[in-house]
Write a structure and sequence with these properties.
Length: 422
């Protein structure tokens, strides 16, 4: 069996003997009715959920802020953002619009990345600003979130007459789903606010899981932050495996987001296929551009691998580790030592990026994980207690050596796109 795995901006091929394959977990998604991506986007704007159309909301609004996703997300902003801006200017032709990039705790986008993501015309015409979670004096304290954290949100967004967000919805390994309210928290929140939302307690909560919103403490903080920030309208898309728009939802922040999540859940749920070896990816670029993002693709594999089994995770990591704290912490001890230290950390003492270390450490204690990457060196990979492999063929050979000649293999070509039922 030959299976193409998304990797960086292309694909790599995995070859597995037919009698070794336990199953392949995929969720092919297709746009209904043969409509173009632009037609899907415009149709959503004509039928907002729980809200007036954006053009009507914009009437009389002078200062408008549009939150958009950064370079680590596959939102097709070159398509969606011009239409969003057009709808705003229908209602308020002279509106002063700022496009605020929801970096969360990521680095800011470079001008080249902005041109690639938003298009040259948008970059030439519009005011685009990177959010800075680490700045001083940039935030407004809007109150207390369910976690007890202060809700500190970018002043530019809080002081807008109209706050709008675009994004996309995919399964998320602790927030339930991406998109919607996530544009505000963590998107444009302070680092302290994000850290408490992502505390060890919250990450370890049984409801902080893929596909779960109700009772999820991380989601509850996020939706309250969006309400306090007065996020008036969201536009979210869903994508197929080629990153093409197959559906779009817009309107009131919670209503539109939940509708998109329900759509995705109905099409992404798969039953687990248990195996001694599980191959997964982080869905290729942009999500596999650094290791920090890769617990997302790992999550589906964790639901399928047998006790004591091996996970093969393929991620290019062209941008390296993806976070200074993450990389430093991963090299500071054994997985057991790291997890013990993180679980003992009080929410208000949370260190940025520790949640990623927490999920990796927990997985590394239970399973052997082979990392297939061309962006990280062997020494760094092995220093973080992964097994290094330069290709999927090499990884599979190593996995067979670790599990025995009779081992079966489950394959999840895009580990970010599926929700494995537990």
């Amino acid at each position: 069996m030959h299976i193409a795995l998304p990797y960086d901006k292309g694909r790599i091929e995995l070859e597995v003997a037919d009698d070794r394959v336990a199953g392949v977990l995929t969720v092919p998604r297709h746009a209904a009715g043969g409509r173009s991506e632009a037609e899907i986007v415009r149709a959503a704007h004509r039928a907002p959920l729980g809200s007036k159309p954006l053009s009507e909301l914009a009437v009389g609004k002078k200062r408008v802020v549009v939150i958009t996703s950064d370079h680590t997300r596959a939102v097709p902003s070159a398509l969606t953002l011009p239409i969003l801006l057009e709808e705003i200017r229908k209602g308020s032709p002279d509106a002063e619009i700022t496009v605020l990039v929801a970096t969360g705790l990521h680095r800011g986008m470079t001008p080249e990345e902005m041109e690639s993501k938003f298009g040259k015309d948008v970059c030439a015409r519009e005011r685009i600003v990177n959010h800075d979670a680490y700045g001083t004096g940039l935030f407004v304290d809007l109150g207390v979130l369910p976690s007890g954290s202060k809700c500190e949100i970018n002043r530019m967004a809080v002081e807008a007459d109209l706050l709008v967000a675009e994004g996309f919805i995919e399964p998320h390994f602790f927030a339930g789903f991406s998109g919607g309210r996530k544009s505000v928290l963590p998107g444009i929140a302070s680092q302290d606010c994000v850290n408490i939302n992502h505390s060890a307690y919250a990450i370890q909560h049984p409801r902080a899981a893929t596909g779960v919103l109700d009772g999820n403490p991380i989601h509850e903080d996020m939706i309250e932050a969006a309400r306090l920030a007065k996020l008036a309208f969201v536009f979210n898309v869903l994508l197929d495996e080629e990153k093409r728009v197959i559906a779009a939802f817009c309107g009131e922040a919670d209503a539109a987001h939940r509708a998109g999540c329900e759509f995705l859940l109905a099409r992404s749920g798969v039953d687990p296929v248990k195996a001694d070896i599980v191959v997964t990816t982080n869905g290729g670029y942009p999500l596999d551009q650094n290791l920090y993002q890769c617990p997302k693709g790992l999550d589906a594999a964790l639901a399928c691998v047998n006790d004591g089994g091996v996970i093969i995770l393929a991620a290019a990591c062209r941008d390296g580790l993806g976070g200074d704290n993450f990389g430093r912490m991963m090299l500071e001890g054994t997985p057991e030592e790291l997890l013990e230290r993180i679980l003992a950390t009080a929410p208000d003492k949370t260190i940025s990026e520790q949640w990623c270390v927490q999920r990796f450490a927990d997985a590394l204690i239970k399973y052997r994980i082979i990392l297939v990457t061309t962006g990280l060196g062997r020494e760094v990979v092995e220093g973080m207690h992964f097994i290094f492999a330069g290709s999927v063929d090499e990884a599979l050979t190593k996995a067979y050596e670790l599990t025995g000649s009779g081992a079966k293999v489950a394959i999840i070509p895009d580990g970010v796109s599926v929700i494995v039922r537990r």
